[in-house]
Structures are given as structure tokens and as C-alpha cells.
Design brief:
4 domains, six-stranded antiparallel β-sheet, Rossmann fold, Beta-Lactamase, alpha/beta
Length: 505
Amino acid sequence: MGKTIRQLRCQAAALLAQSDLWNDAVPQSVRTLIQDLSAEEEQEIDFKRIVDAIDESIFITDKDGYVLYVNPSYSRNTDVPESDVLHRYVWDIIADGVFSGGATIPVLQSKKKVYRLSTTFRSDPPRMGYTAGVPIFDENGELEQVVVSSRPIRSLMQLRGEYPQFLSRARSYVENETQILQEAVPAREGSLQWNSPSMEQVHKLICRAAPTDATILLTGESGVGKEVVADEIYRLSRRHNKPFVKVNCAAIPASLLESELFGYERGAFSGAGTNGKKGLMELAQHGTLLLDEIGEMSMDLQAKLLRAIQSKEIRRVGGTQSIPLDIRYIGATNRNLKQCVAEGTFRQDLYYRLRVIPIDIPPLRERQDDIEPLCQYFLQHFNERYQTDCAFTDKELALLKGYSWPGNVRELENVIEYFTICRTGTEDADEPMLRSLLDADGGQDASRGDAGDMSSALENLEKHLIEDALIRSKNLRDAGKLLNISAPTLSRKIKQYHIDYPRSK
């Protein structure tokens, strides 16, 4: 604001200097403008200078978690250089091990004010801070930015009179972390859509198994909707009002997964928090734990997980005390675990421990009757999200129903979202656009080629899907989510297909 006022003053002064070209009334109005601007400038507060000067750390992201600004105190308080966080996505920063916890992600997910503890790992010992995250909304009520302020706990300890109160509140936040986690990963009620006999059988099995505490193993190709089925199981279970913790075993580095699952005690390893940390299994106490992409877990950790499931107790990393558990387990994978057992990459005993109730979700190409209800469901969903009023023509529905959907329900959802946003309402333009999205020129898709070309066709199709996901995404993590594969797997496939993609965007 201040810069704008100064610019206006300069412009007004320049006009005044040329006043000899005008009549007498104009210079007087210019002089009045200068006076008004001067008075405004005198009352102005330079907020950036204030934020730069305060001792409290300030961390600001946009609605997508992209870091827009950190003040100088942030680096002083955390030992994290500005260059390590600025103009990066907060998920990538956490994945690099710069810090854990914090309030940014909970605010992005809940769109509410959040208080959390945060730990940064660039100093020895790591530094803990007390953070407060606040959502900033635009004039339409849409989330625009997240502002997080934090102060190191060591500085709070200097305020001896207030420290007991702070400690009590901090403990309360840790104890209520399960509530925050529940808000972050809510079950998607009513998102399971079907009309096919095969999915009717799946739903009947869900309804019979959900009210029990039996362990369930969900299998199926990437994108078939295993997480949606898990949501439905949780929603219909007796634990639906208890925590529902989802763990992507492929997204967490193997070296960190054990401490994330089981938690750790103070001083358990270099970089461990001074107060230890509850693991995700503790946070799922009395609730449900979804172990997504369970086939990616290392053999060593598989043995520890098996022991925890069988004994119904865990020990934190570096701990000696057993912690009893009451958890309902759901495993999910796109791998053939029986084959993995034969190959020696997955434990046989864990496989049978997880496979109490196996539920195999068929690919979308095998349940053509589900395509239309899914299309209508997603269309309604995106119409509401983007405030549009789109509808399918008969030709468009025929195209959608005639496609083989190699990316399954996830691909269908992405196509409908793109179509909802980009359609023109003109049939002559929208139908070719849809054909292009489906890679279905001539009414055929890549999976319908000659048998001799099947391998090549599938490779070309996979490469096309990866390239499309990379174009639509901000980073490898987001692209992996679209394709329902882990970022490391996506990175390997990018190299395999020689796809030109920068390491960072």
C-alpha cells in the first residue's frame, strides 16, 4: 500500500510540474490530491517491515501449500536457510526431512485455525516450536493463504510464569492429535458407486465384514478405488466414531516408516524429539488403521508389523514399555502378494494374517455397467465444486462407456474433472476434446490393438498416462497420486520411458 501511495504522489507531482499547460482549476485539484496522499502516507503502517523485524517465525503458503514467504526470524529460530523452504511445496519440504509436524498442512486440510508442535532437524539437537496456523480467505470465502507463526519452546521457557500453562496446552494438543487426524482424512460417505453384478458382490462382502473386527485385505489394479472401499468399510464399522488413520507405506521412506508407525522415545536416535513421539498405530488406538501399498514394505518391517498384529502390542523405537493396541487393520495393495510370497519379497505369515477377509476389486473395464453411474457421480461432484452446470450428451456418454479405462476409476475421475472445467458447451468442440482425452480417435483406444502389438501398446499407453499426469501436476508426488503409484515408482518409470521431465518445477 505504501509503495502505491508514493507512486501516486510522484505521478501527481509530475502532473503539477506540467500545470502550465492546463487551466487554473486543474493544478488546484492536483495539489489537493497530493495533500490527501501525504496525509494517508503519514498514517500508513509498513507491515512487511514489521513482520521482518519481529522475533516470532512467520511461514506463509498459498492454498496449495507453496511457500510464499518466511521472515528472517524463521531461519534464526530453526537453523533452516530461507533457500531450503522458499518457493517449495510444504509436502516436499517435510519429505526431505527439514521438519515434521507444524500447522500448515492441518490448516490446508481443515481450513480452520490450528495449534501444533513442530520439530526442525537442521540443528543438533533438533528444535521444537509451538505453532499457530491461521487460514486466510478471499472475498468469495475461498482459502487463499495459510499464515503460520511459531516460537521456539526454549524462548517460551524463559517466561517462567506462563510456561506451566503452555505445557498443559501443548500436552492437550498432542493428546487430541487423533481428532486432528480424523479431520484430515474423513471417510467419503456415499462415494462408492456401482451398478454391476461384480461390484454388487463386493458391496455385499463389505456389508458383512465391516461390522466385525476381522482384518481385511483389499486388492486390485491401481485406481480401482481401494481407498474408497476402505472408507466404506470404516463408515459401516462399529469403530466409525473412532480414529481412522491412513498410512501410505510407499510414500514414507523405509528408514522413517518404523518410527512413524511405532513412534519413538526421547533420544532413540539422532534427531529424535526431546519428548518422544506417538506413532501412527498409537494414534489409531480403538479405531482403524489402513496400510495402503502394504506390498512396498520392507521385509524387516514386515516382521515387526506381524509381531504387533499378533501380540496386539508395540514398543516405541528406543522404548522398553509395551503399549497394548486395540486396532482394526485394513491392508491394500495393487501387487499380487501371493506371487510376492513366492518370489520371497513378502512374508507368507503376514500375507495370511492380513488375508482374513480378501476383497478383490475388479478393474473398470470388467464392470462396464458402473461407468455411467460413476460419470454422473463425478459430474455432479465437479459441478458443485466449480459451480458449473455441465451435462453429458448421448454421444459423449457413449464415448465414455466404450473406453477401456486402463487407469480405472482414478482416470475416469480425472477425465470428468478436466471435461467439467474445459468444456465449451458446443458439441462440435467438446466431443473431439473428449476423444483426445481418451486417446480414442476413431472410436478405439490403445488397448484394442492387435494381439502381437499388445506389449508395445500397453507401454505406449502407460507412457502417455504418465506424461499426461506430469502435465496436470505440480510435482512428482501429485503426479503419483493421480496415477496411484508412489513417487519412487513414478521416477523409475520416467527413466524407463525416457520422459523429459525436470527434477523440480
